[in-house]
Amino acid sequence: MEQGVRSDDRKAVVAAAVTVVLWASAFVFIRAAGEDFSPGALALGRLLTGAIALVAILIVTGEGLPARAAWRGILISGVLWFGVYMVALNWGEQYVDAGTAAMVINIGPVLIAVLSGLVLGEGFPARLMVGIAVAFAGAIVVGLSNSGGGRSAVLGVILCLTAAATWAISVVAQKPALAHASALQVTTGGCVIGAIACLPFTGQLVREAADAPVSSTLSLVYLGVFPTALAFTTWAYALARTTAGKMGVTTYAVPALVVLMAWIALDEVPAPLAVVGGLLCLSGVAITRARPRRPKDAAPEQVSTPA
Fold first, then answer.
1. Spatial contact of 307 and 179, defined as CB atoms under 8 Å apart
2. 3 state SS of 34
3. Residue 234: which residues within 8 A CB-CB, separation 6 or more?
4. pTM (two decimals)
5. Which of 94, 163, 179, 210 is deepest in the core (most CB within 10 A)?
């Protein structure tokens, strides 16, 4: 039994790693597509692409619709995370520099840890709290290193705060839903609902897609298939097998990866401060994921594999 649990935990770690890498890559492609698509149109195009891919997979696998008990969490995460979050983040980044946006958005994992401790009864483990503090400090350092020094608009900060809050609420709502439905079912339902919520931007998407170059359109398609359809599914898979607090702090690895990807793909050489911040982010994540040491003579902990 213990061997099966460890194998399941390793799969969850791999799934979380896939999510983090793909979400980090999204920043590069959002920058490319954002030059030709407005925030709402970009969100709708991304969600429609992701929904088509996910529904097709759901049909092929024959999983069918989620159980009724899962729909509350799916509806909440669909409207708030897939819908409001994506539009608010795209919109907010038009008013604030990258450094400010990074610092504000990274309030999200802190809110996730607090809400999951209060609402889901996960508590506030010391290791998790220390990891959050270290990773959050790293996120601030990365944000400062990328700040252009310009004055941030109040509207942009409010929009980024809105994105962070909707992300945290959605994760806490999504966690119970995964007890009644698979990761694929929860992600598909959320993506479809998010696309429906963004339908008011249809006119913008049609007009902008007609004028957008092929490179921007391909960036939008990539965002829908990989950072949305695939990454949100691997996120849900990992979330079903660990605590919401740990999953939230795992995303602090994203800023470090964004710095590395921008260096490789965009030839943006990272500042020394960004490297230090990235290492702090990764250290904080490592602290939360490390297993506490057990005395050699201690009996193995009895745990059961999640359903």
1. yes
2. coil
3. 15, 16, 18, 19, 22, 183
4. 0.78
5. 163
